[in-house]
Amino acid sequence: MKIEYIKGDLMTTDIRHIIHGCNAQGVMGSGVAKLIRDKYPSAYTDYNDVYNNTGLELGDIVFSAQNDGKIICNAITQKNFGRRDDTVYVSYWAIAEVFRKIDAFGIKEIAMPMIGAGLANGDWNVISAIIENTLQKTKPVVYQL
Predict the structure, then answer these.
(1) What is the rounded distance in angstroms from the CA atom of residue 48 to the CA atom of residue 43?
(2) Cα angle 65-100-115, degrees, rounded to a multiple of 5
(3) C-alpha angle 64-145-75 in degrees, rounded to nearest 5
């Protein structure tokens, strides 16, 4: 399904489901993950609990229901984390897997940043093609500042 691009702040979306990329190390210390952690602390707690209890694997999604009705989808799209360097941290396979799951769950619409293309150093042209080719029933909406 074709991505819709919106200029605006992801954290103020009216869309119920928000997906963002996370690492498999239990850390949400920068980028959009930190914004999610700051606004929705329980999303971090739920993610970190899974990390501590069973571990996190590429392609996993940790769903976290919020008091305001939002559902945060902590998508494990990278094994490790890093800062802006030359390393590509995002797994394109994991991107495809999490969006396959989102589509299978019957989620009608999902808000996101340019997932995997920020601190994870992924190529947005590749990622957006994966998303559009994977989602059949779920409308993807990318927020850009």
Answers:
(1) 9
(2) 70
(3) 25
pLDDT by position in tens, the chain (length 145): 999 999 999 999 999 999 999 999 999 999 999 999 999 999 999 999 999 999 999 999 999 999 999 999 999 999 988 666 788 899 999 999 999 999 999 999 999 999 999 889 999 999 999 999 999 999 999 999 8
Q: Return d(Cα 10, Cα 112) in angstroms, integer.
A: 7
Domains and CATH numbers, the chain: 4-144 (3.40.220.10)
Structure tokens that stand for 65 in this block: 């229901």
Rounding to the nearest 10 degrees, give the CA dihedral for residues 7, 44, 18, 77. Answer: 90
Over the range 100-111, which residues count as b (16 or more CB within 10 Å of their CB) and which as e?
Answer: ebbbeeebeebb
Distances (CA, A) of 108 to 3, 17, 24, 135, 139: 13, 9, 26, 10, 6
**Is 72 in contact with 66 (CB distance < 8 Å)?**
yes
